[in-house]
Amino acid sequence: MAFSRSSMLALAVTSLVSGASAQLETCSNTNTFSCQSSSTNPTCCFNYPGGALLQTQFWDTNPSTGPTDSWTIHGLWPDNCDGTYESSCDSARAYTNISDILTAQGRTDLLSYMQNYWVDINGDDESFWAHEWGKHGTCINTIDPSCYTNYSSQEEVGDFFQKVVDLFKGLDTYQALSAAGITPSSSKTYTLSEIQAALTSLHDGASVYLGCSSGSLNQVWYFFNVAGNAIDGQYQAVDTLTKSNCPSSGIKYVPK
């Protein structure tokens, strides 16, 4: 499907005239998963080229961010099914007023959650959200404005942030590690294999990317393929496409 500016404008005008709520195109090919088809045709129901979607999380300790018993949100990234990715795909939609957009859409509960669990290490949450949307969100082709019926300006922005939060809520990294006996400690260390096992179990048997800084665990990426669009589609856990940079043993998981 072509994503022309004229079609985007037409959809926006229709929405203003009718007053109808925006909806993403209904997808019928719900059994065709991204990265698992030979198709190279991006449509509103097929994520391409960014067919792998990664829900990414932080464990920030210097300075600490977010609750002491939870990881925090990094974002949702489209990956080209091979570890490479597109970025900053539409400068015209690189919005910087994310809080205003969510408030105008009546998504105040979502915004409140983000203020607790999607926080910037330097305290500038608004810039962090704008960065994640502009760099990654604009590259998810199945939430392009032309994929909406009765499109309302910036509707896809609210849908994107809601989806990231919904995925994050289903991936409680802190709890999964704790259940495996892996808890923050100033002295204890862990092996890569035991951390991976705990989070692979959480991720429906699919391996995850584990990131470390100076030998301390600080990132996890959960990879998915999607059938349908990125908002309403079916998410399938898949193995990481990126090799961990953590050591095989002696990994620190320091407290916030």
Q: If you had to describe this structure to a student in words, what would you say it looks like?
A:
Its EC number is 4.6.1.19. GO terms for molecular function: hydrolase activity; ribonuclease T2 activity; RNA binding. The chain is built from 7 helices and 9 strands. The chain is α+β, with helices and mostly antiparallel strands. It has a single domain, classed as Ribonuclease Rh, Chain A, CATH 3.90.730. The strands form 3 sheets. Strands 2, 3, 6, 7 and 8 form a 5-stranded antiparallel β-sheet that branches. A hairpin with a 6-residue loop joins strand 7 and strand 8.
Which features characterize this protein?
single chain, 256 residues, alpha+beta, Ribonuclease Rh, Chain A, 7 helices, 9 strands, disordered N terminus, endonuclease, RNase_T2-like_sf, ribonuclease T2, disulfide bond
Q: Can I get a quick summary?
A:
One of its GO terms (cellular component) is extracellular region. Keywords: Disulfide bond, Endonuclease, Glycoprotein, Hydrolase, Lyase, Nuclease, Signal. This protein has one domain (5-252): Ribonuclease Rh, Chain A (Alpha-Beta Complex), CATH 3.90.730.
What gross morphology would you assign?
globular
Count the beta strands. Answer: 9
**What is the architecture at the second tier of CATH?**
Alpha-Beta Complex
Percent of residues in helices comes to 25-40%
CATH topology: Ribonuclease Rh, Chain A
What percentage of amino acids are in beta strands? 15-25%
What structural class do you assign from the helix and strand content? Answer: alpha+beta
Query: What is the CATH class designation?
Result: Alpha Beta
Separation, N- and C-terminal Cα atoms: 46 Å
Count the DSSP helices.
7
Estimated radius of gyration: 19 Å
GO molecular function: hydrolase activity; ribonuclease T2 activity; RNA binding
Pfam family, one: Ribonuclease_T2
Family: Belongs to the RNase T2 family.
Enzyme class: lyase
